[in-house]
Amino acid sequence: MTTHAIAWSILWPALIAGLIVAASHVPLGVQVLRKGIVFIDLAIAQIAGFGVVAADAFGFESGVMVQGSALAAAILGAVVLTWTEKKFPDVQEAIIGVSFVLAATAALILLSSNPHGAEHMKDILVGQILWVNPSELWLQGAISAIVLIVWIALGERISRVGFYVLFACAVTMSVQLIGIYLVFATLIIPALATREFARNQLFFAYLVAVIGYAMGLAISAWLDWPSGPVIVWTIAIAGIGAYALRPRRI
């Protein structure tokens, strides 16, 4: 098997994983930006990451228990943030930031006695998209499809708590698949770059994500750089390009 064939056998599952995540995260990111709660995705993603760490601390390294722990933590975080948004709307963004810090430091506390804690935290933050198992793509694909179906069916009619819970379900698996930083970049950068597009915003936001993932994986393979951080940067570069080239009237 040639070097190019080996590289492609590693890159194609990673690219598909990124596109599956982008399929559900890009429209949610557009809505998050419109609602003005940009850092909620980062907070819930970190809370889901804490759920993964908590499951590991209790001896569950993989499987249904890890997924359940991450989902339960994310949904609980979503419900709490829904309540705080109603109770303290004027400081909601600050509460979201505090929630992120608390979840992150709680994860560090749980990992402090784990000899592989630093590596585990790195995986949660930057992900291991280059080493995605093709068998994981089916589950992520199913989750993204369900999220998209619910979003298309309800759209703007979805309640606040419904949106937060849907968001929690979307990021639970993706955090484990591609890491918190890449989840945040996929949600926010395409939406931010295309926010002034009067029409077809979603199409161009998807285009930014697709170009970012494709470029990032290619560059990381070529230069042997870490894939997650490189993709974050290439999504940002694609976003800057889209914003700079935006038509004034679309």
Model description:
By secondary structure, the chain is an all-alpha fold. Helices cover 79% and strands 0% of the residues. It has ten helices and no strands. The N and C termini lie far apart (47 Å). 40% of the residues are buried. The mean pLDDT is 85.
Percent in strands = under 5%
Largest sheet: none
Radius of gyration: 18 Å
The chain-level mean pLDDT equals 85
**Overall helicity:** over 70%
Note the total helix count. Answer: 10
Distance between the termini: 47 Å
Helix-strand pattern: HHHHHHHHHH
In terms of quaternary structure, what is this?
single chain
Low-confidence stretches: none
- How many β-strands, per DSSP? 0
What is the SS-derived class? Answer: mainly alpha
- Taken from the alpha-carbon principal axes, the silhouette is globular
Précis, in short:
This protein has helices at 3-35, 40-57, 64-87, 92-111, 117-126, 136-154, 160-178, 180-193, 201-223, 227-244.
Keywords:
single chain; mainly alpha; globular
Draw up the topology in text.
Blueprint: H1 3-35, H2 40-57, H3 64-87, H4 92-111, H5 117-126, H6 136-154, H7 160-178, H8 180-193, H9 201-223, H10 227-244
Helix pairs in contact: 1-6, 1-7, 1-8, 1-9, 2-3, 2-4, 2-7, 2-8, 3-4, 3-7, 6-7, 7-8, 8-9, 8-10, 9-10
